[in-house]
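Below is our example:
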Amino acid sequence: MKYLDEFSNPDLARRLLDQIHAVTTRPWALMEVCGGQTHSIIRHGIDQLLPEGIEMIHGPGCPVCVTPLEIIDKALAIAEQPGAIFCSFGDMLRVPGSGQDLFSIKSAGGDVRVVYSPLDALKLARDNPDRQVVFFGIGFETTAPANAMTVYQARRLGIHNFSLLVSHVLVPPAMAAIMESPSCRVQGFLAAGHVCSVMGTSEYPPLAERYRVPIVVTGFEPLDILEGIRLTVTQLEQGRHEVENAYSRAVTAEGNLPAMAMLRDVFEVTDRTWRGIGMIPQSGWKLSERYADFDAESRFSVTDIHTEESSLCRAGEVLQGLIKPHECAAFGKDCTPRNPLGATMVSSEGACAAYFTYRRLELVQS
């Protein structure tokens, strides 16, 4: 409870808001990269307390949201295979594919299981040697070390009935792609603290310099975010574009060196498609040659599955910060958490789910 109390103090929040108001002299558009930060901003109404000219643009930082539709369909195809045990974190089970989701597969008799660690899936493989066990490895740099360690352990222990369906993506290339978009309005970034706790901050100074944008690493509690906004706006007002670490209790410049070594061993960088955004060069990981035998796509021959997004869903524009969720005509009508059109509505960190959960529905009618 320590950080929940210390970093949600309303008196300190008001003091930070006063400082933000005092330093702001013109409009600025800031993007919070992480979906967890988006939920905190909307839940606590931070965006509504900022000076009128400060706009928070909700970025693509929800791993469930950016997992491409074709990967979801590949997961569904694998989960339907007789004898397969398909394992995933719970937040992926209701993400819609082209025609169904993992819950539908489960209700139809498929062996789909919610696990709390990829090592749980590895244990299932060890306990069920006659079954093929697949873990759905999605996420940013944050979740990748645990998935890499699991594949490393499977190889070391000789557990060959385990495989990984990989959909890992990397944050810095996505930030670069956003900045290079002709429609980009982002003038400063709040970088994701949990990603930087693994990877450190060394990848960000070149981005700040190349695109002349301040990048401030922040946490997820209200005071974390307000301090990140204050530092970003201060830089913009002073004409600076530097990297600052406002999350030093968890982030160091060098990052988690053992985790990074494991990532370099198990994965290699590859081009990756982001849902709603498209292909971003060198923006993801795939299994390296040493661990290619544990690639579920190859093992189950689903590499050729290709799909198209719903024409009604504008999640891609939300993920790029081009529109707010309530500006989509389907929001709250054809698309709700119970019947989602896209991952941004079903994910616990999705911007559309945040707007729906925290009653931004009235904005649709305003």
